[in-house]
Amino acid sequence: MSVRRAAAGLAVLALAGCGGSGKPTITVSAAASLKKAFTAYGAQFPAATTRFSFAGSDVLAAQIEQGVKPDVFAAANTKLPEMLYAKGLVEKPIVFAANQLVLAVPAGSKIRSLADVEKRGVTLVIGTPSVPVGDYTDKALTRLAPAQRTAILANVKDRESDVTAIVGKLTQGAADAGFLYITDINAAGGKLWAIPLPSSLRPKVAYGVAVVKGAGHPAQARQFVAGLLNGLGRVGLANAGFLPPPQG
Fold it and tell me: pTM for the complete prediction?
């Protein structure tokens, strides 16, 4: 290979790593519920071009276990980042945001309370047990009286792998109600209504984030994480309806 061709090849690789903008490109694997907040943050992030992969937190964690190396992993719980940390796959996670689980219904629905979804004929869509929104939902339902819980679970039509799929079922009229985060309602542009759960049922919803070990741009990844606590990322989260990290 000639010196000229070798130099050209190196230039192509350099451009690929920098996204063609002179800045490196970092990949952020994040829970689907973070899409609005993270997309806004990524558009303003000064240290790198950001590329996102949004899906269920459990799916993204499994990918990292299988050898996929995004620069940052952000989950809708703290359990999955801590599990990856225990396996030596990510740096020590931090808790960066909180959220609130609500009963979601299409705009204009006649459903007004949790008692309404106990009625025969109502169709529910909820998350699978392995995805955080499904786990939080199960925790809330276990705090109900057994008869109430049985009636609600009998109306579950589908279990979905992330909040995006639940939102889709509700906005398309394929289900009467579901359990989502308040931020998903905010992002739905008026298509969904939120019915708050009684305080006795609400699970503690906390989000964890970590830099993935062995990824290409650890310095920029750490800057991205830092901005979620103090900076443009914190602003993006607040604008999307996320709460500050829970204390204790």
Answer: 0.89
